[in-house]
Amino acid sequence: MKCPYCQAENAEGAMVCSACSRDIGIPATLIAERDDLLRKRELLIEELRQARGEIEKIGLRRKLR
Question: Residue 19 phi/psi, 5° resolution?
């Protein structure tokens, strides 16, 4: 498990970083929430790409008139 602060490698499940002594224990509920938020973010990014594509098509149609 890599420390999010100093990037040092630590034993899996470590609660404190062996290099910088910072608290690195993350509750499973926070990890699950983060994963859910990342999934939702990816969905929103894809929706935004599609919307931008549709806006570009509308703009091109207006120019052709």
Answer: -95, -50
